[in-house]
Amino acid sequence: MNINKIHHAAIICSNYKRSKKFYTEILGLDIIAETYREERDSFKLDLRVGMADQIELFSFPGAPKRPSYPEAQGLRHLAFEVGDIDETIRELEKQGVMVEPIRVDEGTGQRFTFFHDPDGLPLELYEKI
Question: What is the mean pLDDT of residues 99-126?
Answer without folding.
Answer: 92
